[in-house]
Amino acid sequence: MPTRSKQPVHRQHPILLFSRNFIKHPKMLGSVIPSSRFLIEQVLKRVDWDRARVFVEYGPGVGTITRHVLKRMHRDAQVVVLETNADFVGYLRGAIPDTRLHVVHGSAADVERVLQEKGLGKADYAISGIPFSTMPAEVREQIVQSTHDALRPGGAFLVYQFSSKVRADLERVFDTLHTSFEPLNVPPAHVFVAGVGTNGASHPA
After folding, report:
1. Contacts 24+ apart (CB under 8 A), 131-135
2. How many CA atoms, within 13 angstroms, populate the side-chain half-sphere of residue 68?
3. 157, β-bridge pairs
4. What residue ranges of the chain have pLDDT lower than 50?
5. What pTM does this model have?
6. What is the full DSSP assignment across 8-19?
7. Which domains does the chain have, with CATH numbers?
8. Which residues contact 82 (CB under 8 A, 6 or more apart)?
């Protein structure tokens, strides 16, 4: 008797796909469900949508925040998402048919190289929900520094976390840091807005 073919990944229900991957890779996702609308608003409320033309997102998962960025950003803007999970890469490429979206199967540490290869130069905003608290310190530091270097002067790194562990790295590398807390997300989340000075120089260590 012939077996039923597996449903294409981009046709799977996003919450089920996300949950299954959380079970397989809990340290990579940090939460069993995607971000809530409350957290999304908290993260994106500081974006200057009229000015921004290049967005980067790390660990987009099933594109919960990505879709909101695409809806709000300028029609000439571009968003590059870097995702290490092959299931999520396949889902995003099939489920979001927007030519302004570039889905890259790769690490956040490679953000500068990816932007150069895409011919996009520096980014206006980088968005990340990858769980920095479960990473080795050297990897976390590399991603934070690479993100600073990939942003335009005046740009910002928008980070949401269930732990405040990344705060020290953001304070060390970036020029400004604004923090807030979203209690209505499950689980509740810290939000960090780390800004690059207008001269683009790193904050002294």
Report:
1. 131/27, 131/28, 131/29, 131/30, 131/161, 131/162, 131/163, 132/159, 132/161, 132/163, 132/165, 132/166, 132/169, 133/161, 133/162, 133/163, 133/165, 133/166, 134/27, 134/28, 134/30
2. 18
3. 126, 194
4. 1-5, 13-15, 18, 21-32, 200-205
5. 0.83
6. PGGGS-HHHHHH
7. 9-195 (3.40.50.150)
8. 56, 57, 58, 59, 104, 106, 107, 108, 110, 111, 114
Residue 35's pLDDT is 79
pLDDT of residue 7: 56
CA distance linking residue 87 with residue 95, whole number of Å: 12
The residue assigned the tokens 């932007």 is: 115
What's the confidence (pLDDT) of residue 128?
Answer: 97
Q: What pLDDT does residue 16 have?
A: 54
- pLDDT value of residue 23: 40
Identify the residue whose tokens are 């073919």. Answer: 5
Residue pair 128/59 in contact by the 8 Å Cβ criterion: yes
Phi, psi torsion values for 7, nearest 5 degrees: -65, 135
* Angstrom distance (rounded) from CA 41 to CA 148: 23
Provide the pLDDT for residue 124. Answer: 98
